[in-house]
Write a structure and sequence with these properties.
The protein is mainly beta and about 450 residues long. It contains five helices and 30 strands. A four-stranded antiparallel beta sheet has the order 1-29-28-27. It has a four-stranded antiparallel beta sheet with strand order 2-3-4-5, with no helix packed on it. A hairpin with a 7-residue loop joins strand 12 and strand 13. It starts with 18 loop residues before the first helix and ends in a 14-residue tail after the last strand. Bound molecules: 2-acetamido-2-deoxy-beta-D-glucopyranose (NAG). 2-acetamido-2-deoxy-beta-D-glucopyranose binds next to loops.
């Protein structure tokens, strides 16, 4: 598992390179760290009750393995376990999303089953088979998970799941069968459902697609919590207020795509995505406020807004707002579009780039090419990064090869298509300049972090 992972520190050029290191240097390039493949799949497979159940699911078209794509990953580490013993054993659970983008997907959210299969580990539907089973026509929207693109586990073990409510999203027969909803499970208490929230129809457009979520905890009791949800296809940001159990929609110009950045070329596949806001990352809390960083998929710029602005519901009641002075757009740009992004406790943004790489930027610096650094790249292992999380000192990411879902090009049926990768944040950003200093005024509400962000190292 990850604890045995020893990232290789590349030292390219100069100095003496021993013969032992020479082989590793070949794959090193100009990047600082590396990402290790933790799990990989040729095709997704599930924990069917029996081989007969699996076979009948395949025969009936309820399970079409090549249509099931892993998009996001999330990790829960239960730190309560092992606190009494000397060796702090952390119980870890890994979850993935398999959005229902095409027919033949038996479960949209699943837990990786630890076991002895090194590749193509099985997926166990989460929280169970029943909730993931679609019986169209008689579907009970309250008790069914239709399709999940991305999730977020907060540091209190609350598992925030956004169900887009549509079936076969990337197919000609795409259709909405339930309103989009938010489900929150309590991973510390037997996966009990804490909240079910259906977004009101006035906040959902025909084209809406709720693709991503960030969770903003603002007091130590965590009642004062907001979720920010991207509506990538209607170009909106939805704010959910946990305490008051209500939501509102923000319409702002920087959530829209840049049409001249809608063209993508990934591993020889040409694609157009007129996709709006997708990447989200929350900065550290400073003076009781924090920034939400965001960008559209069809964009090479980064934007940000203070979350105290987003939390002021009254400001957004009259449609598209004039964001000047509140919403910001970087003047300089990345080389390539970015999908998802994450933030370290100290305010270092790590973003997934559509040239099969990861980049970093210290948010204390201007967003200019001088301060943007490539920290990892792999044309084979990191095709179409589509999900990313920071947990502890590690970054987890999914490479989904999603480009192949939009073409008729036949992919090699024996090749690995989906990967979950893990890297050590410190190793990845070392010697890039992203890590050069910490802000000293960061407030930390997460007790398990042991005031790490105040360390002066
Ligand atoms: C919220 O926004 C309204 C309208 O712009 C403004 O009058 C009010 O002062 C804001 N409230 C807070 C708490 O900032």
């Amino acid at each position: 598992m990850t604890t045995t992972m020893m990232p290789y520190r590349c030292r390219c050029g100069g100095g003496l390179i021993s013969t032992l290191m020479a082989a590793a240097v070949l794959v090193c390039g100009a990047v600082a760290g590396t990402m290790q493949v933790e799990y990989s799949w040729v095709y997704v497979d599930y924990t069917f009750v029996s081989p007969n159940h699996r076979e009948s699911a395949i025969n009936s078209g309820k399970f079409i393995p090549e249509n099931c794509v892993i998009l996001d990953v999330d990790i829960f580490q239960d730190k309560n376990i092992g606190l009494n013993s000397n060796s702090a054993v952390i119980k870890q659970r890994v979850f993935v999303t398999v959005p229902r983008i095409k027919p033949g997907n038996p479960a949209s959210i699943a837990e990786v089953v630890p076991g002895d299969r090194p590749s193509s580990v099985l997926l166990a539907p989460y929280p169970n088979w029943k909730v993931n089973t679609i019986s169209e026509g008689t579907i009970n929207c309250d008790n069914t998970i239709v399709s999940v693109f991305r999730t977020k586990i907060d540091y209190l073990g609350r598992f925030w799941v956004v169900d887009v409510g549509t079936l076969d999203q990337f197919d000609m027969a795409a259709r909405s069968v339930c309103p989009p909803k938010l489900l929150i499970f309590d991973l510390k208490n037997g996966d009990r459902v804490i909240k079910k929230y259906k977004f009101p129809s006035s906040q959902v457009k025909d084209v809406s697609l709720f693709t991503n979520i960030e969770v903003d905890i603002r007091d130590s009791k965590a009642c004062n919590t907001f979720a920010y949800i991207t509506d990538t296809d209607a170009y909106k940001l939805v704010v959910y207020d946990f305490k008051n159990d209500e939501s509102w929609v923000i319409d702002q110009a920087y959530f829209y795509p840049f049409p001249n950045k809608a063209h993508f070329k990934i591993k020889g596949v040409d694609l157009d995505f007129m996709d709006g806001i997708l990447g989200l990352a929350l900065g550290p809390i400073i003076q009781n406020d924090r920034k939400l960083y965001f960008h559209a998929f069809a964009s090479i710029r980064e934007s940000w807004v203070n979350t105290n602005t987003l939390q002021n519901k009254s400001m957004f009641q009259n449609g598209l707002i004039d964001g000047s002075g509140r919403f910001f757009l970087s003047s300089e740009v990345r080389e390539t579009q970015s999908s998802v992004e994450v933030m370290t406790d100290n305010g270092v943004l790590i973003y997934a780039s559509m040239d099969n790489s990861l980049g970093c930027w210290n948010t204390q610096d201007p967003f200019t090419t001088k301060y943007i650094h490539t920290i990892y790249k792999s044309d084979e292992d990191f095709q179409f990064p589509s999900g990313m999380k920071i947990v502890g000192d590690k970054v987890w990411a999914v490479s989904s090869q999603l480009q192949n879902q939009f073409t008729t090009m036949v992919t090699d049926s024996n090749s690995v298509k989906y990967r979950v990768l893990v890297g050590q944040v410190d190793e990845l950003i070392k010697s890039t300049g992203c890590n050069k200093r910490l802000a000293s005024n960061i407030q930390n509400l997460d007790p398990s972090k042991d005031r790490l962000v105040f360390s002066s190292k």
